[in-house]
Amino acid sequence: DRVLEIGPGPGSLLRMVKLFQPGSRIIIVDLPTSLTYSFCHLLHRFPDATFCLPHEATSDMDLDTIDFLFLTSNQTDVIQENSIDLAVNTMSFQEMKEGDISFYFHWLRKVMKKENLFYCVNAVEKSMIYKGKTVPIRFFEYPWSSEDQDYKYELSPIEHGRTYKPFYVRAVKIAVSHK
Length: 179
What we know:
3 helices, 34% strand, alpha/beta
């Protein structure tokens, strides 16, 4: 019922989720400068839906009354523990520092329901420059847990032939940190 995407870009995947699961509640977490793109795209596609923008979000709001909730990374505390069914990250963890990736994994382990699905597609490895140093961001070094249950973990067939670098796709029941 509740779908969360971290770094959705224009929100194309979420548009498809909402189209095929009209009753789903969509939560979008992204940079403030990127939220504009997903908001405009989704508003255009779903003009009758209910939207909540970052400046309107509060921790006591009823998520079941909002079709699309837009949050910045500083507002993750708005989402209650044990409330998300499906989380997605496609090609944005590879753009983050290790500390940011760890933050999101820790947060996901709090907000995901016990029965959940986390779908992640990112580069096998991507070199990023931080403070003048080249740092490799590696998919297999994300803070996965030995308690995570894999449904699928393989090189992405979607990206194969479309780009010169390989991508992993991992669909996993993420181990949660709540009761």
